[in-house]
Amino acid sequence: MKYFKKSFLLLLTVCLFQILSAQKLLTGFPNGSTPKEVGKRLAYHFIDGRHELYAGRWIHYAEVCTWNGALDYALKTNDQELIKLLQDKFEPFFTTEKALLPPMNHVDYNMFGSLALKLYQITKDERYKTLGLAYADTQWDAPANAKTEEKAWAGKGYSWQTRLWIDDMYMITVVQSEAYKVTGDRKYLDRAAKEMVLYLNELQRPNGLFYHAPDVPYYWARGAGWMAVGMPNLLRLLPADHPDRPRIMEGYLTMMKSLKSHQGERGMWNQLIDEPDFWPETSGTGMFTYAFIVGVKEGWLDVATYSPAARKAWLAMVPYIDQRNNVTEVCIGTGKKNDKQYYHDRPRNAGDLHGQAPYLWCAAELLGE
Q1: Which pTM does this prediction carry?
Q2: Which of 16, 149, 161, 347 is the most buried (most CB within 10 A)?
Q3: 243 secondary structure, DSSP code
Q4: Please, are residues 350 and 61 in contact by the beta-carbon 8 Å criterion?
Q5: CA-CA distance, 362 to 288, in Å (whole number)?
Q6: CATH code assigned to 30-144+151-363
């Protein structure tokens, strides 16, 4: 019996040592690659940047994503100056820049509400709450002039903005999740979870990856990245007994296992995940890295397997930031197309906010609680 106890304690000690060692892989980064340094570079660079507009008229969702990331970083570092600058950047939307607010009639536009709701949680300024909830609620309340297909989705309890593009699993879930955080109203959480399960059932393939859309059978990195970020963010909020939690967790774990197997030797993922001859793409890599980091921190992913992978990816990502604090090798905005060469030939932008955002998400997450 004594031998059994000693063996058990030894095994337990070894296991704890391995877990702690793996967890430490997400700290102790070399100078120039620490999440605090990288996050500061990108967040303050965002402050100085011009608005990125959608269709030349309204705030683009990529800017909202980056703004949210900068706020998360500012909160983790308790950078009050940065919080104030980010708040000041928003203030004109109530006055001189009100015309730049996106209309409440498209999945990419309505996610703007997530930013207002995040700012409300920081400031308790009711103006943010009113604006943000309007975007969250109109994402579900079909307008009178909605198309037949849109009304059909609404009739089934889904967002009338449902289109089954993989991108939607961040655009829809982020604003509904922030509305839940602000109000505590379970309907917002249930909406996001119901929508997530629909997209999982329609788009996830047996190998754990996702088509860009049902009629576009390509594993586009950033497209899949929206799902990779949306699932763990939602899982953090879902109660243990939520009926949709098991399906979402299954989808998440299956995806993470597949992503691990497709990670490149240097730590990156390619523009099309399963195409070794395609180029390493930074926005998708940042999103997948974020998903690994969250999974390790929450205990959903094996630390000995995924901590080294996350560290490797982060260290591979940092050199893609140029001297102007722009993330390079970012695929530009990409609509679906059933053409493999189309994805290969997409232009790559330096400083594109599609890439700046996931870098900030990773930096904030690596900084701990």
Answers
A1: 0.94
A2: 161
A3: T
A4: no
A5: 10
A6: 1.50.10.10
pLDDT category at 231 given cuts 50, 70, 90 is very high
pLDDT (average), residues 7-16: 50
User: CB of 352 within 8 A of CB of 62?
Assistant: yes
Q: What is the pLDDT of residues 264-291, one digit of tens each?
A: 999 999 999 999 999 999 999 999 999 9
- 197: which 2 tokens? 């399960």
**Of residues 112, 195, 104, the one with CA closest to residue 146:** 104
* Alpha carbons 369 and 365: distance in angstroms, whole number: 8
Question: Could you give the count of Cα atoms lying within 13 Å of 321 in the half-sphere of its Cβ?
Answer: 25
Question: Residue 209: in which H helix or E strand, if any?
Answer: none
Domain borders along the chain are 30-144+151-363
Residue 18 has pLDDT above 50, yes or no: no
Residue that is written with structure tokens 């109109």 in the block: 138
Sign for the pseudo-dihedral over CA of 177, 179, 185, 187:
negative
The answer to the question of whether 241 is labelled as a binding residue is no
- Are 284 and 224 contacting, i.e. CB atoms less than 8 angstroms apart? yes
| Matching residue, tokens 């990856």 | 209
Using CA atoms, how far apart are residues 26 and 8, in angstroms rounded to an integer? 28
- Give the span between the Cα atoms of 311 and 229, in whole angstroms: 17
Q: Would you state the structure tokens that stand for residue 345, as one six-digit string?
A: 């030939």
Taking the C-alpha atoms of residue 153 and residue 136, their distance in angstroms, rounded to an integer, is 16
Sign of CA dihedral 35, 37, 38, 39: positive
- Which tokens sit at 102? 């996106």
Segment 237-246, tens digit of pLDDT: 999 999 999 9
Residues in the chain: 369
The predicted structure's pLDDT at residue 13: 53
Q: What are the tokens at 332? A: 């530009």
